[in-house]
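Thread: quick sanity check before group meeting

JM: Hey all, I'm pulling together slides for Thursday and realized we never actually wrote out the predicted structure for the chain we discussed last week. Dropping the sequence here so it's in one place. If anyone has concerns about the input, flag it before I start.
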Amino acid sequence: MFDFDQPPERRGTWSTRWERYPADVIPLWVADTDFRAPPPVLEAMRRRLAHGVFGYNVPPAALRDAVVERMRRLYGWRVEPDWVVFVSGVVPGLHLAARHLTRADQHALVPTPVYHHLRRALVLAKRELANVPLVLSQGRWVWDEEFLAAAVKPNSRLLFLCNPQNPGGTIFTRDELHRLAAFAQKHDLVICSDEIHADILLDEGKPHVPIASVSRDASRRSVTLISPNKAFGFPGAGCAFAIIEDPELRRAFCADHHATVHDPSVFGFEAALAAYRECGEWLEAQLAYLRANRDFVEREVGAMRGLKMAHVEATYLAWIDASGLGVPDPYQYFLERGVALSPGAQFGAPGFVRLNFGTQRALLEKALRRMKSNS
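JM (edit): ok, ran it. Output follows.
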């Protein structure tokens, strides 16, 4: 019913991913997909465009209700409507958390490797931080809990989490999240959890669990950042939200919201509402396509000299250990062979590269042939 093999032409459309490199380079770096948005999303945008008026807007009550219903249905998490704070994207939410949920003399804990804006938000806010390594355990990237316990300080205030994990692809289990939440409670930490990939679950039978849903205490100390942008393919339209139960945390998070971060556009609101109301079947079809892409990448990378990768439970991102190649810069090595990946140094691991497999399989096959023939 849905054709994910048909490639849209993205060059010449102001695409961040496709405009950076020459035409002979295959860009598999920044995390957006090469799939057209779901038909109901496109139709919702067409209706709004036909209306022809694009004035200032407020977050629609229907979308707030859809968020509440979705959290209850998918996770058994009972969220009140006034806990939902709309922002233009998860990245602005990370920066708001770093600047407004900590004081200048406080300390934060950040996993590594991790999506670079978790760390960047703290660096730009001039907050002290500790990088807490993730380690491979039974083929999954998980927290080094002993290191975490040693890294906390008396002035620690904020714990950043990325779940599902970017770039490692881990879906953290309820038990793992319980332990992390208990650690936060013991040390009175605020948890800021980036859960933008929550809908991109590739391993069937492994559910996403929002950390705020594991206990009442976890809910009261959490800021959970969620967006349909990644899963439903409209990051350029931009709509995200924070779920914050505690009124004081919510006030702090929103302290200068309109001075520094704008609301989603009317098209972001329209896209998000259509995605949550009407696009479940499309999402399942996309996940099946991505699952097959994931399996293909794991097989091909596993057969390449000098490369290895852990199993990807979620996201459309392959975290590839290229240290076995013996080259000083794996990113540059593959770029010279016509494939642009994300450099591991961006995530805190210079010997790695990250590959975006959210694209047509024919293009993916071509990129992996280039990588294989020169590895």
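AS: nice. The mean pLDDT is 97. The longest strand covers residues 128-137.
JM: adding both to the slides.
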